Amino acid sequence: MSLMPVEEAQKRLLASIPTPGTQDVVLAEAHGRILAEDLAAHRDQPPFAASAMDGYAVRSANIKDLPTKLQVVGEVPAGTLFPDSLHNWEAVRIFTGAPVPEGANAILIQENAERDGAFVMALEAVTEGQYIRPAGMDFKRGDVLIRAGTRLTAGNLALAAAMNRPSVKVRMRPKVAILATGDELILPGENPRPEQIVASNTFGVAALASEAGADILDLGLVGDDKTAIAAKVEQARAAGADILVTSGGASVGDHDLVQDALTEAGMTLDFWRIAMRPGKPLMAGKLDAMQVIGLPGNPVSAMVCALLFLCPLIRAIQGDTDPLLVETAALGGPVAANDKRQSYLRASLSRNAQGGLIATQFTGQDSAMLAGFARADCLLIRPPHAAAVDAGMPCQIIRL
Ligand code: AMP
Ligand code: MG
């Protein structure tokens, strides 16, 4: 059976994305969510001509000969309104953020003024509009400032609040059910027999998936047992999972029953076995509306496959149009020629003197070595049949 190229597998997986639902969330819960509506401002910002400094609101035409004496007729701190108009030879004490009174057209900053009881002496001339932020300078009511599809950043949230939008419509987080399979597995903290293995995949995969924007349903561990696997598949379906992720049991051994169990439960296989290292036994299919991803059991393979397939799928479901997150760097050391499988080498990232990214592969690359994976900053991508390359040459990476 020939192996499917990574790009083709990714393309197939991302080709049939279900339309995601939407929900309203308050701003405090919207960080990192993907906006599902164009967001228009509900007011002008600033809503009035505002003073940018502490000082005096004045008429610029009054201050030509220096010094000029003006009568102080009132005071406007931020959050108050001066009830009258300003007339010639008058000044109003004003503070940053306060509305500029009618009739005033400039702010004389307090550093250039000398207060004398009911009067103030202008020591410097002012120009029209000086230190006044015009109404709507930042944005105007009705301006669409954040577009549907944006992943909401800290800046977006501050902006939405200033736009007087207390809640926003965002894409639902896909629900990802995760099942670990293997007779040898126990949970961390249990007392393992010497022949048992502590299950680690669910913890890493769940963290990657929730970082990509998913809600996690942990289905726990089952042995290599079709009936037990089928029961968990039903649980995932009943819970309305968008994606079911399994780990382990994905190869061709006598105890690799996941694909059979899924097929018997009604899954249509989309693809299986990818031309990649690590991660060859990756499987994908569909069980009604639920996408199924079968990760290999090997801890590093499971993480790499989750990064390459599960995370982009989660991002794409939320409307992300560029979900693969591949970047360019330069090689920190020589890399050997590659065979027919695309390789994902665990590597460190640093910067050269110009600030460019440098990716340097680790020496041990066994797909069972989690310590090396946890230490890595990125995966260095080596295409099939790539020739040997020297340090300094460009390469593609995926950050961890
Ligand atoms: P399998 O895909 O079931 O053949 O598993 C391949 C290797 O990964 C075996 O050494 C398993 O013990 C190991 N493995 C499978 N599932 C997990 C898991 N959830 N956590 C850690 N190791 C696992
Ligand atoms: Mg197994």
Overview of the structural elements:
By secondary structure, the chain is an alpha/beta fold. Helix content is 19%, strand content 31%. The chain contains seven helices and 26 strands. The strands form seven sheets. Strands 7-4-6-5-9-8 form a six-stranded mixed β-sheet, with no helix packed on it. A hairpin with a 2-residue loop joins strand 20 and strand 21. Helix 4 packs across helix 5. The protein is elongated and about 95 Å long. It binds adenosine monophosphate and magnesium ion. Magnesium ion binds next to loops.
List the helices and strands and how they pair.
Elements: H1 6-15, E1 22-26, E2 39-40, E3 50-51, E4 55-58, E5 68-76, E6 90-94, E7 106-109, E8 113-116, E9 119-122, E10 132-133, E11 144-146, H2 154-162, E12 167-171, E13 175-181, E14 185-186, E15 197-198, H3 201-211, E16 215-222, H4 226-238, E17 243-247, H5 258-264, E18 268-272, E19 276-277, E20 283-287, E21 290-295, H6 299-317, E22 326-331, E23 342-351, E24 357-361, H7 370-375, E25 378-382, E26 394-399
Parallel strand pairs: 5-6, 13-16, 13-17, 14-15, 17-21, 19-23, 22-24
Antiparallel strand pairs: 1-12, 2-11, 3-10, 4-6, 4-7, 5-9, 8-9, 18-20, 20-21, 22-26, 23-24, 23-25, 25-26
Helix pairs in contact: 1-6, 3-6, 4-5
The chain binds adenosine monophosphate and magnesium ion (MG).
Adenosine monophosphate binds next to loops.
